[in-house]
Amino acid sequence: MKTIPGTVSHYKSSPVFTEHTVPAALQRSHTTAAGVWGRITILEGSLLYRITDPSQPAEEVLLTPDHPGVVEPRIEHEVQVVGPVRFQVDFHR
């Protein structure tokens, strides 16, 4: 998994989502805007993160409080709820 470059800055955060409130749009393939990175921070539980972009190697990672996810700009990805979870997405550009 990539790391967020030191040249970008945090500019907003999503609400805290749970397994009951995670938007359907996050559970199907989607991207961030050009130049926008995301950090998926798991507060409790776990979440499955998949890179679905056909131009990238397939990747599936179980995110946990000790293992956050990094979303690259314009790379198709999705998350899957695997049980009770609380998480937030921080956006950087």
TrEMBL record:
Domain TehB/YeaR-like stretches: 12-89
Cross-referenced SUPFAM superfamilies: Clavaminate synthase-like
Pfam family, one: TehB-like
Signal peptide bounds: none
Membrane-spanning segments: none
Name under which the protein is recorded: DUF1971 domain-containing protein
Classification lineage: Bacteria, Pseudomonadati, Pseudomonadota, Betaproteobacteria, Burkholderiales
